[in-house]
Amino acid sequence: MAQRTKIPFWRRQAPPKWYDIALLRPSALPKKERFETVADAKAERIRSQAVLGSVSGGRIHAEYLHDCGTDGYRCGQPFCPVCARRFRRWFTGELLRITERTTSLQIFTVLLQAAPRDQIDKLDLDTHRAALRKRIQRSGLGDAAVVGGFEVAYKARLRSWVLHANLLVIGGTEAGHEKFAETFAGSELDRPVVRSPVRDRPAQFSYLLKLSTYHRPYQQNGEDRSKAVSLNTAQHLALVRWMAKREFQEFMFLFSARRRGTAICM
Questions:
Q1: Would you list the DSSP string of 107-135?
Q2: 221 band by pLDDT with thresholds 50, 70 and 90
Q3: CA gap 266, 254 in Å, rounded
Q4: Where are the domains of the chain?
Q5: What is the model's pTM?
Q6: Which among 70, 159, 161, 247 would be 20 to 30 A from 114, CA to CA?
Q7: Distance between CA atoms of 96 and 262, rounded to whole angstroms?
Q8: Among residues 133, 148, 157, which one has the least CA distance to residue 220?
């Protein structure tokens, strides 16, 4: 198996302690409230490895997970819980840094596309990345910066995958925010836009980009999220294979912002 020799940008340095989500949401907190610990990520890696190793189509991915952490090797795969934790720690730290002196912050969760459970490859990030940029510009938010992440969730009730984006809008006008939300009014998806004010930056920012292999089959009750349940083997394998075709940075969305080395710049 080929190993990645160049240290990726998200692993080159740890966030300063005042931006480090692992310290701001520490292990002492209940599991639902803390940022996942290294132990949490390793346990999930073991579980995923076992699931993938049980089917022929997943054994190469199980091998990546088995080798990750051996002799200093990191697989750098988006489906690896340990590597994903490190990437998310970097990403959340950058969001905390660039918004430290900003008060105009809004989070939009937008549903982009649904695909049948056996057609996950119909979900294309680049297509939706370009479409989101156009929506933002046409909404009069050209002066705002938008940073966020793409996520795929399995909806058991619909037997489908749903691609959505969690977007942090930095700046912009109220009229622009409303117009952006209105651009999804014609969507065939239920509740295509959810808008939330930012009240707790560490907590909310840590959910903007997630790379998980579980789903929530039960209906959400108010602000309380339903219980997370492991995907069955077929859906787990499908999601891992879809994720394996991409690099971590492909899951980021940047508008009027860009990555320069280890920093996100606006």
A1: EEEEEEEEEETT-GGG--HHHHHHHHHHH
A2: very low
A3: 9
A4: 9-265
A5: 0.93
A6: 247
A7: 14
A8: 157
